[in-house]
Write a structure and sequence with these properties.
Number of strands: 0
Structural class: mainly alpha
Radius of gyration: 19 Å
Order of helices and strands: HHHHHHHHHHHHHH
Number of helices: 14
Shape: globular
Number of domains: 1
Helix content: over 70%
Length: 295
């Protein structure tokens, strides 16, 4: 099965980024500086490796500029999402940010040759309904339509644009070079923003530094190497929708490590969400069966 490795990479990548909301909830550092160190620590490990092994290959100018754009988009997405969490609740920010599959689907329909299949839209609707069930219908009665709300929506849009642009770029360059260029761009951009806004670069507790290193190594370096590989070999719409699975994993991790309760409604919502994601993977299986039946 040619899709087995990308799917496995995507699953492990989703598991890695699912840790991130739990770490942010600890609120041991500011949102912007947390985003900077997430990129900087990942770069500390990846960049020396690609330089000394000569695996960093610069693409042609137009592709390089798009890769730099991806770095700016991703950095802005992480920073905006972190600020949104601290300005409202992790639940609200996560839910609104995870509307990104809708924006990816619309963007793919408008700008890409590979249009989303019908099963993508069906799966998206079911998955979003599952997420609504997971967080609770009463949650929407308490939505706070403030700046944090708008920032969470913006985060989802930024991420959707990142997914669409990166999908095209990864057809033109390898994953390590792409990650290196986007990391350098993100580090410089977030570093400048933190300096301008006078964010503290030190003075964190030991626990704070530990959280920053976990974010950088697990949530950024490992997770996005795997997700970028999956994006290179799968449809952007499928990858973006599959990332909704982090909501289920984050809920389980919150139960394990933050002593948050899991209700029957949350279990049902999680199962519906995962079923919606699974629907988006049916098309190729069905098409193969049709070909076999014809023969």
């Amino acid at each position: 099965m040619t899709n087995a490795k990308p799917r496995l990479a995507l699953a492990i990548g989703i598991l890695c980024i699912s840790v991130f909301p739990i770490l942010v909830k600890l609120n041991l550092t500011g949102g912007l500086i947390s985003a900077f160190y997430r990129m900087a620590i990942a770069g500390l490990f990846l960049l020396p490796y690609v330089v000394f092994t000569k695996k960093l290959k610069l693409p042609k100018k137009n592709v390089l500029l798009l890769a730099i754009l991806c770095g700016l988009l991703f950095a802005a997405d992480v920073a905006v999402w972190n600020i949104s969490i601290q300005g409202s609740s992790a639940t609200q920010a996560t839910l609104l940010t995870n509307l990104s599959p809708v924006w990816v689907g619309i963007g793919s329909f408008l700008f890409l040759k590979n249009k989303p299949a019908t099963n993508f839209w069906i799966g998206t609707l079911i998955a979003i309904f599952g997420m609504i069930t997971l967080v609770g219908f009463q949650f929407f009665l308490n939505l706070d339509f403030n700046i944090a709300f708008l920032l969470a929506i913006l985060s989802g849009i930024l991420y959707a644009i990142y997914m669409l642009v990166s999908k095209n770029i990864l057809n033109e360059m390898d994953v390590l070079s792409f990650m290196s260029i986007t990391l350098i761009t993100s580090i410089v951009f977030l570093g400048v923003v933190c300096i301008i806004l006078k964010e503290p670069f030190s003075g964190f507790s030991d626990a704070g530094w530990l959280v920053l290193f976990i974010q950088g190594i697990v949530c950024q370096l490992i997770a996005w190497l795997l997700i970028s590989y999956a994006t290179q070999n799968m449809r952007a719409t499928r990858v973006s929708l599959s990332l909704l699975g982090q909501a289920v994993l984050a809920t389980i991790l919150a139960w394990l490590f933050l002593d948050e309760k899991i209700t029957f409604q949350m279990i049902v919502g999680g199962l519906i969400l995962l079923f919606g994601i699974r629907i988006t993977f049916y098309s190729k299986v069905l098409s193969v069966k049709k070909l076999l039946n014809k023969n």
